[in-house]
Amino acid sequence: MKKFIPKMYQQSIYNINYPKLKEKGLKLLIFDLDNTIGSVQEEVMNKRTADFLNKLASDFTIVIASNSKEERVKKFCSPVNFYYVSLSLKPTSKSFMKIKKKYHISYQEMAMIGDQIITDIFGANCLNIYTILVDPINNDLKITSLNRKLEEIINKKNKLIRGNYYEEK
Ligand SMILES: [Mg+2]
């Protein structure tokens, strides 16, 4: 069950202590798309997020990995120039392997940032990628999905309470 616990948990991508990630030697940040850097309704990345990620890109390589279709990811990412993986099949290692190969870096130098325990955190933890959980942008939308229900059960077992943010575990 430990593999379902993120190393860091913050409210949003804007609350993460990025200088600390740099200090830890992390070089590449993988962001989930839906409910992490954009709401499900947003077709294109908003300016605030684009500016924020572009600024982060001076310190880290930024990659976007989404289980959504190419069409969705391509359009959403159109305001920025980051490498993205669509149909990433998280939580499998497929997209992580692809990113590792492309950038010639180790999993220990990568961080995965996402809103879902099962798709974003579990798979990355299995590869020793640094994991950061954030709250979903639209809290109520996916609450009925199977993943969210499973996540509730897992979080209960792990005593992870949504809203109780922490810097490192
Ligand atoms: Mg998501």
Strand order of the largest sheet: 1-6-5-2-3-4
Specify the helix fraction band: 25-40%
How big is the Rg? 15 Å
Continuous helix count: 6
Task: List descriptors.
globular; Rossmann fold; binds magnesium ion; alpha/beta; 169 residues; six-stranded parallel sheet; single chain
What does this protein look like?
By secondary structure, this protein is α/β, with parallel strands linked by helices. The protein has a single domain, classed as Rossmann fold (3-Layer(aba) Sandwich), CATH 3.40.50. It is 33% helix and 15% strand. It contains six helices and six strands; from the N terminus they run βαβαβαβαβαβα. It has helices at residues 18-23, 47-56, 70-76, 94-103, 117-126, 146-157, and strands spanning 8-10, 28-31, 61-65, 83-85, 110-114, 130-134. The protein has a six-stranded parallel beta sheet with strand order 1-6-5-2-3-4, with helices on both faces. Helix 2 links the parallel strand 2 and strand 3 (61-65). Bound molecules: magnesium ion (MG). Magnesium ion is lined by residues 32, 34-36, 114-116.
List the helices and strands and how they pair.
Layout: E1 8-10, H1 18-23, E2 28-31, H2 47-56, E3 61-65, H3 70-76, E4 83-85, H4 94-103, E5 110-114, H5 117-126, E6 130-134, H6 146-157
Parallel strand pairs: 1-6, 2-3, 2-5, 3-4, 5-6
Task: Please outline what is shown here.
This protein is α/β, with parallel strands linked by helices. The chain has one domain: Rossmann fold (3-Layer(aba) Sandwich), CATH 3.40.50. 33% of the residues lie in helices and 15% in strands.
